[in-house]
Amino acid sequence: MLKKHLIVSCILFIFISCSKDNYPNTPEVIPPEEKEEESLTTRLTKNIDVWTDNWVINVFEQGLIRVYDKEEHKDHFTVFLWDKEVVDSIVWHIDDILHYNSGVNPFRSMTGVTFAKPGDYKFDLLLYKDNKVIKQAGLTIRAIAGKDFFNVNWGNPPASSFVGESYSDKEGYRIKQTYVKGQFPYSYLSLYYSDQFPKQTLEKEKEYLMEVAQATFGTPKFVSAQSKQTELDEKYTKLFKNKLNYTPAAIWENSTSTIALVGTPKDAIETYFIIAEPKY
Fold it and tell me: 10 Å Cβ neighbour count for 73?
């Protein structure tokens, strides 16, 4: 009986041993590779974007550009509370128009922008950390000459006398546009001087404003370089209802407006500006 039991045990041992040999080894459990933890800067800036409600605006009309978190705020408004641990500085940039370093405290979340000339303007927001751009967002605004004279529609006159401005950080100039009511309404643009933009020479004033007018209205119909001053004075007197003490340097016309680059006062010019009247 004992011998029989021993034989059965040996057979069972051999069977179990062979069965184990046929099974593969249990693989070693390898923990997944640990992901590198996102930095605070990456986590807080990865969804930054910029937005404007007015992708097409008239020259001298203000547009607004906002910074927002596109993941959290679909309405394009976000209030940011950051410090130097997140970013070192934020730069707002449009070639020849705007270059502003806002810093981070307080954080600038919106900027106004205006343009004196029609065209497509590319805006870039640049976030810096350790002297490197760690985030960039951008958009393009189109400026058009969509009203009768810059930012004025003669048929629906503005309620305010001040109707718009444009400025350039790079060039330093600021141009303001005014609307004057009366029997014969008119609008004019002039350079605005301040501590940041000191008084310019007459030739520089003329150059700034001639460039602005030509960018919108093209080559003047009459210009002092082509006509004698007396002839230009006569054209100006004939075309304009307001008999003001100005010396014209160039005259343009379109379907709704008569426009002139003028110096004043007539006999001893001290400053230049652009003036326009509706066609009567």
Answer: 15
CATH no. for 42-144:
2.60.40.10
Ordered by start, the domain boundaries in the chain are: 42-144, 162-278
pTM: 0.78
Beta bridge partners of 153: none
N residues, the chain: 280
- E strands along 102-229, which residues? 110-113, 119-129, 132-144, 162-167, 174-180, 186-191, 222-223
First to last CA, the chain: 133
Name the one residue in this structure whose structure tokens are 């310019």: 200
Asked whether residue 225 carries a pLDDT value surpassing 60, the answer given is: yes
Closest CA to 122 of 55, 205, 77, 40: 55
Q: Are 219 and 200 in contact (CB under 8 A)?
A: no
Alpha helices in the chain (DSSP H): 2-22, 40-45, 202-217, 229-239
At 154, which amino acid appears? W
* Tens digits of residue pLDDT in 247-269: 999 999 999 999 999 999 988 99
Q: Output the average pLDDT for the chain.
A: 83
Q: List the structure tokens of 28.
A: 């070693």
Phi, psi of 217 (to 5 degrees): -105, -5
Percent of the chain with pLDDT over 70: 80
CA distances from 241 to 117, 157, 186, 244 (A): 27, 18, 9, 9
Residues 22-32 have pLDDT tens digits of: 444 544 555 55
